[in-house]
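Consider a concrete sample entry:
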Amino acid sequence: MTEPAPQGVIRVPVPPSYREMRRPLAQRRPVLIAGGMRSWPAFSRWTLDYLIERAGDCEVVVRNYTENVGVPRHLWQRYCIHEKMTFGAYLEKIRAGTAKSIYLAQVNIPKDLEPLLADIEKPAFLNYSSLDPVLWLGPGGHVEPLHFDTAHSVIGEVVGRKRVKLFAPTSYFALYPFPWWSPIGSTFSRVDVDNPDLALFPRAAGATSIECTLEAGDVLFIPAGWWHQVYCLDDHAVSVTYFCERRTAELFDDLKDPWCGHFETVKYLRSKWATAKSIGERRMAAARRLVGAE
């Protein structure tokens, strides 16, 4: 059955205040704030040369997706391989065009790229404590696979453009998440939404999406539970994200949603699985000892 088409992204044309954002956020939909971070020093400073000069010696961890290139998503055995290198070495790969399957993702700026911290500002409407800002930097053509976050996220696009395809939380079963015992995790979809295999995933035919394009300087708020797949449209793209924990996000008090209960269910099931797995492993060890296998 086809689900009702979700309403589009709410667009706010000027950087809003804390008070001005309460109403659009209460609608539980993504919000695009045009030019919302143009005042950040990073917006005018973050060229490749500047980033290398300021933080090139910092060590970072990158995601290498090479083993998954050309492999249908539902057959992935793991999400990526993590590799360490200096920030400068990765940026030189970006410059040379040799980082096609390598992505710098979710790097904690205060801890790992501290020289860049002075260049960013928490958006004015984030009038509460949030997690540390994290950096995302990737090559042109990179596609971050479809997933959802269990926290609200606020994405500031510093360099380049990104296309974002979004599905409402009600699409959960239509998007066939990986099993929660999978190494990849149940926040990622097994469906290639650009070319879905409807023989394997028939419910995907009923999933409907909305899209927006993030221009450099824009800010996008994505509520927890909204699925999103992100496409880098330019030579490279750089963004900064603030993840917002529910318990500390007083701004989002209006976002009371039955969907939120899903996350507690997942946590409960995971705890039960861990207990059952532990008991099973102990029983198997006892059986092996009984037959002299150990």
